Amino acid sequence: MVAAASVPAQAPLPSAAEPPDLVAVYKHLHANPELSYREERTAAYLAAALREAGFEVTERVGDYGIEGRTSFGVVGVLRNGPGPVLMLRTDLDALPVEERTGLEYASTARAVDERGEEVAVMHACGHDLHMTAFLGTARRLSRLRDRWAGTLIMIAQPAEERGAGAKAMLDDGLYERFGRPDWALALHTNAALAAGRLGLVSGWALANVDSVDLTVKGRGGHGAYPHTTLDPVTLSAQIVVNLQTVVSRQVAPVDPAVITVGSIHGGTKHNIIPDEVKLQLTVRSYRPEVREHLLAAIERTAIGTARGAGWPDELLPVMAVKEEEHTPSTYNDPALMELLEGVFTAALGADRVARLEPVMGGEDFSRYAAGGEVPIALVWLGAVDPEKIAAAERDGTQLPSLHSAEFAPLPAPAIETGVTALTAAALDLLARDEADSE
Questions:
Q1: What is the longest distance spanned by two Cα atoms in the chain?
Q2: At a CB cut-off of 8 Å and minimum separation 6, what does 204 contact?
Q3: Half-sphere exposure of 304 toward its Cβ, with a 13 Å CA cutoff?
Q4: Are 113 and 154 in contact (CB under 8 A)?
Q5: Residue 268 burial class via C-beta count within 10 angstroms: exposed 0-12, middle 13-18, buried 19 and up
Q6: What is the DSSP annotation of 157-223?
Q7: Which of 137, 205, 387, 399 has the fewest CB atoms below 10 angstroms from its CB?
Q8: Cβ within 8 Å of residue 352, ≥6 positions away
């Protein structure tokens, strides 16, 4: 549970944890990214750094349930007497993106993906910033053990970009083996917020994410004789149009929801009507009831559209939800967020802490809430050069988003802010009882 009252820090926090050193750590991590499921060197680097900081470290935590696939999850535990348990989490993996930032430490890494294809690799989602702030916080809290009591659990999680890492670590008995935390915190880079600032969202913060495959069957034939076929291309077009009314007419306007058809594949030649078309959808929501309604409505709409077009039962569309890629919505505990807002404001100043709106992106950090049993908070970490934000506002240009090949954080102020914020939060939540320390 969140403490009833926030205990102020006993003394000012130390200045930024060796900023030049941490910037060097960041540049190393940025230049050496690894894809999801392949974070072996990155995990070993963080494990070594946690051991150096005095943590008891366990590597390869996680179970994907797939033979031959190893989880590179890392857990560092620092016990500092009786008291509550706080978990801080970072993610490890990078994306198959070819970097175009022009930075002198830009990634030139390449790797072979799961399909056996060679791809470029880049930290285009800021996980390198997350890891650096995570390590800086671990070092600082290890040095400040006279200021807090309890247990600090540091989680370095793989495969966030695939929505699989948190589940794998929990399935491997994370909480049973290392302790169920009283709170869990994480940072996430924000590509629209200035470096040196934090963004807070209370309650629903990020969405349920579902990947849906829809196979639209038909009866192919010659394009010159469409009346002799059942054309899955035209049926697919009708389904896509009909799906647009699911959100606008079947979901309450106050419930955020998104259905996007991101991919359509069918056919091989101009004059051949194919036997099937494949659609790929992303589906977003907050509340579980809305998620269930959206998924049911997609299947119902696809089948109903086919029946209305005269399709026989054996050729009705088939829908598959990729449960292995599902991530639940992130609900930031309101009481915890209220406490953190006061802590961050005291540590950074009110001008560096902003209230932000929820978004429809997704994050598997949500799983650490364990069905609402653990209060969690994901905090946005500003990463953009303020001068670039000002220039974009002047000329109306769009800043590079997360996952962009041109995403280039301003590391020093972002890292300093992340370390200061996480350290302040930990010192507040794990505040040592002065009566016990005398």
A1: 91
A2: 256, 286, 329, 330, 331, 332, 358
A3: 10
A4: no
A5: exposed
A6: E--TTTT-HHHHHHHTTHHHHH---SEEEEEEEEEEEETT-EEE--EEEE-EEEEEEEEEE-B-EET
A7: 387
A8: 196, 197, 198, 344, 417
- The secondary structure of 109-154 as a DSSP string is -EEE-TTS-EEE-B--SSHHHHHHHHHHHHHHHHHTGGGB-EEEEE
CA-CA-CA-CA torsion sign (22, 23, 24, 25): positive
Q: Which residue has the tokens 């040196």?
A: 196
Ordered per-residue pLDDT tens for the chain, 438 residues? 433 333 333 334 333 345 569 999 999 999 999 999 999 999 999 999 999 999 999 999 999 999 889 999 999 999 999 999 999 999 999 999 999 999 999 999 999 998 899 999 999 999 999 999 999 999 999 999 999 999 999 999 999 999 999 999 999 999 999 999 999 999 999 999 999 999 999 999 999 999 999 999 999 999 999 999 999 999 999 999 999 999 999 999 999 999 999 999 999 999 999 999 999 999 999 999 999 999 999 999 999 999 999 999 999 999 999 988 899 999 999 999 999 999 999 999 999 999 999 999 999 999 999 999 999 999 999 999 999 999 999 999 999 999 999 999 999 999 999 999 999 999 999 996 654 444
Q: Which residue in the block uniquely carries the two structure tokens 């106050």? A: 254
Write out the two tokens for 118.
């060679």
Task: Please list, residue by residue across 135-168, b when 16 or more beta carbons sit within 10 angstroms of its beta carbon and e when fewer do.
Answer: bbbbbbbbebeebbbbbbbbbbbbbbbbbbbbbb
Compute the distance between CA of residue 175 and CA of residue 373 in angstroms, rounded to an integer: 12
The total number of residues shown for the chain amounts to 438
CA distance 327 to 206: 10
Amino acid making up residue 93:
D
DSSP letter for 234, please.
Answer: H
- Give backbone dihedrals phi and psi of 7, rounded to 5 degrees, phi first: -95, 120
* Residue 327 DSSP class: B
Cβ proximity of 376 and 185 under 8 Å: yes
Q: Give 3-state DSSP helix, strand, coil % of the chain, rounded to 5.
A: 35, 25, 35
Q: What is the sign, positive or negative, of the torsion defined by CA atoms of 167, 171, 173, 176?
A: positive
Distance CA 127, CA 419 (A): 14
Q: Is there a contact between 330 and 376 (Cβ–Cβ < 8 Å)?
A: yes
For 21-57, give the DSSP string.
HHHHHHHHHHHS--BTT--HHHHHHHHHHHHHTT-EE
